[in-house]
Specification:
685 residues, mainly beta, Methylamine Dehydrogenase, Chain H, 4-stranded antiparallel sheet, 7 helices
Length: 685
């Protein structure tokens, strides 16, 4: 196997059998180098052709030259280089004067004659090159930018694909070198054993952003519906969530309804630009009215005025939905700010939502709002300005900060008696701007834990929501509860009264605030978790009912774990007294970005497993921390610290694996568990 990397290096790999599986092993690597003083484009590889003799590689470049490399040594055979000048000697002069060869776009070996290769240049020129005699035997003058070439199997014709989506068929044996129209299907003889390949049923087209399969057996050549519902390359992935232990019957229903619609929603509760949609799975198409409710998070408090955009208007009348997840109720937040957190409890039929102004609880079975809680601080005006005003305010604040610091630097230089000409001052200012930006970027990583002011912006921003059945009022009775954590280090806990199933539609769900915790350093709350009497996280809703999890221990005392950006803290319940804490920022100079509890099973026996906390930091490393004692077990470097989008997109699974984006539409998968390794276990014959 030969691979070409982004840095223009070639790598030669071989397949080896090891431990009952095939492994790729790198044998050689090589970088094509041009003569001294030549530009990088002279050797920038644009096309690779492995010859059927397995002795050489042909490398097309941006300069139009084709280099020949020996295998397996990866040594350049300079005397066999195919230069663009040699090619142009056999091309009509008017074509040569009009356009150059430019870069080599495609290289294809003749399927019947290994001494002939087809060379395609980006501006449309195509030549058939005789390797034995080093000359052009045929040339084909195209008028469109070339993308690719493909031989017909008998070598009598080839197809050229072009930038505008067109393709052209060219005869090779005839003297006529002009393109002829492509027939719907070219008839072949059936004398060869492989003649069935000459009657194709489908054509696969790799476009820039999707894979298209065309049905050649049906009139009109319709596209075949792919097994997925939308190409991942059509748009960037902005949100992802991993779901474990899906009941088999539910999964079969999802697959069945996904095959019937073009767009589907993978969550039952979705949040947008300031709206929450609650959805249910329906196997059939349906037309119904989507009920809607409004949640005023400011609760008509005086002194607050929203300066952002207006809310979206809901559609009146029934709406038709295809099979799959269909919305049946919509909650409109007021002010219409972005929904920042969401939690759904499918067993209690409740959904909680949070914004930069507060949070609320909605009963989607009775379709009524249970309560709202405003979390705004009186001085937090930025949260009321909307996203565009917020960016302007931030830029203005940064400019003012730069000016203040620059003035202080200049005045201090004058006091020291320093002087310099204008160019020196300009250079110093430029260096100062660069240094200041670096200081601003590094400062949060290097600083120790320090108390933040309650007047900092966005302290009311709701970062996390969590449902738990635990002991909140006293140690003898447990009850449903809702927990919320904010950007200002505040944790709110509400006791919930959910009526039993037989009276669920007759009695309202009630909520009462029971606790409020203020972290001393006011660091943003990243996660909230309740551990049962065995120090095991509480199961997800309906997991116990579907035999996907053990029942929680409700006999021993429960504990509350609060994870902020800077530290982990364990509290006893129901008193909420501090028991243990681990300061990450003070000791390691890092901040928590993502957290989850993962079950780590033994790779040697199925009888042992343990639950630990997996924490991803802004430095890109993953730390495994024991529960409930908060002891650091091990640290893995996982994502480059410069890859901010990768860190922000990371998703953990319940069994010690994770995913993060390495491009807007591609996931990298990793594993922290020795039991669940991420490796290709396969054999290549």
């Amino acid at each position: 196997l030969v691979t070409l990397l982004d840095d223009n290096s070639l790598h030669l790999w071989t397949l080896k059998q090891h431990g009952g599986a095939s492994e790729l092993r790198e044998e050689h690597h090589f970088t094509l180098k041009g003569p001294p003083g030549s530009p990088p484009s002279a050797t920038q590889i644009t096309a690779v052709l492995p010859h059927s003799s397995r002795e050489v590689l042909y490398l097309g470049t941006e300069s139009g030259n084709i280099f020949v490399v020996e295998l397996p040594s990866l040594r350049v055979l300079e005397d066999r280089t195919i230069t663009s000048e040699a090619v142009l000697q056999r091309v009509p002069e008017d074509y040569c004067n009009r356009r150059s060869c430019e870069l080599v776009e495609a290289l294809r070996e003749h399927p019947k004659n290994p001494d002939h290769i087809l060379i395609g240049y980006s501006r449309g020129l195509i030549v058939l090159w005789d390797l034995h005699n080093s000359r052009v035997t045929h040339h084909f003058l195209g008028s469109q930018q070339l993308e690719n070439l493909y031989w017909q199997r008998d070598g009598s014709k080839f197809i050229s694909c072009h930038y505008d989506g067109s393709y052209t068929q060219w005869p090779v044996s005839s003297d006529n070198r002009q393109p002829e129209p492509l027939e719907n299907r070219v008839p072949y003889g059936h004398s060869e054993p492989t003649a069935e390949f000459d009657d194709p049923s489908a054509m696969v087209v790799l476009a820039e952003e999707e894979l298209v399969v065309i049905d050649l057996k049906t009139a009109g050549w319709p596209a075949v519906h792919p097994p997925y519902l939308a190409s991942l390359h059509c748009s960037a992935i902005t949100c992802s969530h991993h779901v474990s232990n899906i009941p088999l019957k539910l999964w079969e229903r999802i697959i069945s309804a996904g095959s019937k619609q073009n767009i589907h929603y993978s969550n039952m509760s979705l949040s947008f630009s300031f709206q929450v949609l609650v959805m249910e799975l329906n196997d059939e198409d349906a037309e119904h009215i989507v009920d809607h409710a409004e949640a005023d998070l400011l609760q008509d408090q005086e002194g607050y005025r929203w300066k952002g955009h207006e809310k979206l208007k809901t559609r009146d009348g029934p709406v038709r939905f295809e099979a799959g997840f269909q919305p049946f109720v919509l909650v409109q937040c007021q002010p219409p700010a972005v929904v920042t957190s969401l939690a759904l409890h499918s067993e209690w039929k409740l959904v909680a939502f949070g914004t930069s102004h507060g949070f609320g609880l909605f009963d989607h079975q009775q379709k009524r709002l249970v309560f709202v809680k405003c979390t705004l601080h009186p001085s937090d005006q930025l949260a009321l300005e909307g996203p565009l005003s917020r960016v302007k305010s931030l830029k203005k604040s940064l400019r003012q900060s730069f000016r203040r610091i620059r003035r202080s630097r200049v005045s201090s230089r004058k006091r020291r008696g320093g002087s310099g000409n204008a160019s020196e001052v300009q250079e110093a200012n430029a260096k100062f701007d660069q240094d200041t930006l670096q200081e601003m970027e590094l400062a949060p990583v290097q600083r120790k834990i320090e108390a933040r002011s309650a007047e900092d912006s966005f302290t009311g921003f709701v970062r996390t929501l969590y449902f738990a059945d635990t002991f909140l009022r006293d140690s003898s009775r447990h009850c449903p509860s809702l927990w919320a954590g904010t950007n200002g280090g505040t944790v709110y806990a509400f006791c919930l009264r959910v009526p039993p199933a037989e009276r669920r539609m007759d009695e309202p769900v009630r909520a009462e605030q029971a606790k409020e915790i203020q972290l001393m350093h006011r660091a943003p709350v990243v996660g909230i978790l309740v551990l049962d009497g065995r120090s095991t996280p509480l199961p997800e809703p309906l997991e116990v009912a579907h035999d996907l999890s053990k029942s929680p221990d409700m006999q021993g005392s429960h504990q509350l774990l609060v994870v902020s950006e800077e530290q982990l803290k364990v509290f006893t319940l129901p008193k909420v007294s501090s028991k243990l804490k681990l300061k990450l920022t003070a000791l390691e100079g890092c901040r928590v970005r993502k957290m989850t509890v993962a079950n780590f099973g033994s790779c040697k026996t199925d009888d042992y497993s343990e639950n630990d906390l997996a924490v991803l930091t802004n430095l890109g490393d993953v730390q495994i921390i024991s529960l409930p004692f908060l002891k650091l077990q091990i640290r893995y470097p996982c994502i480059r610290k410069e890859d901010v989008s990768g860190i922000a997109s990371c998703v953990f699974t319940k069994y010690g694996q994770g995913f993060y984006l390495i491009s807007p539409s591609e996931f990298e998968r990793f594993s922290l568990s020795t039991k669940w390794l991420v490796e290709p276990r396969c054999v290549v014959d």
